[in-house]
Amino acid sequence: MNMSINRKVLLSILLVSFMAIPGLNAEPVDDTQPSLYDRLGGLAPISVVVSDFLDALVPDPMLNQNPAIDAARQVVPKPYLKYHVTAMVCQATGGPCQYHGRSMKEAHAHLNITEAEWDRMVSVFEELLASHEVPEQESMELLAIIDSTKADIVMVTTP
Ligand code: HEM
């Protein structure tokens, strides 16, 4: 009985101290399952999937019909994009990286990206996840991360 009260007090103290550390996420941590980053196998496989994704996306003829996308992909080095997107995915999945690039709004505002172009990008990504045999659950979580950026990236919405 006493033991269980002491445990509760100790847990509360730990929780309060954790939440008081500036810069740490005060959300309760779900440590019942490994992070998406760990389930994907860490930075090496993530970097391979991102690299293959950009190799498929950058020369895509449908996307490059948009003159702003075509112009940007000719001047922005692909390795630079691979670096930034890898860091972003690593961070967003709970890995140890920190993304230091521009916000999604700032990086894409001049590209006039449409809903149809967004859908094309998502289908290229889905094909890639399938070809790398990324399991269903992890694929869904990655697609949700991508989807969370849509409002900042798509500038031309269809009525
Ligand atoms: C149809 C969808 C998309 C297209 C056509 C697209 C295209 C581009 C292009 C052309 C650039 C270079 C822009 C420039 O510097 O002038 C860029 C930058 C970038 N994109 Fe996308 N993008 C798309 C979606 C996404 C998504 C879903 C993400 C991440 C979840 C993403 C992450 C980035 C990052 C991290 C950069 C670099 C930011 C920086 O330079 O600081 N993009 N994108």
Name the CATH superfamily assignment.
Globins
Give the cofactors and ligands. protoporphyrin IX containing FE
Q: What is the end-to-end distance?
A: 64 Å
Number of strands: 0
Mean pLDDT, to the nearest integer, reads 86
CATH class: Mainly Alpha
Dominant shape: globular
Question: Order of SSEs, N→C?
Answer: HHHHHHHHH
Q: State Rg.
A: 20 Å
- Helicity, in percent? 55-70%
Structural class: mainly alpha
The biggest sheet, with number of strands, parallel, antiparallel or mixed sense and barrel status, is: none
CATH topology: Globin-like
Strand content: under 5%
What is the name of the CATH architecture?
Orthogonal Bundle
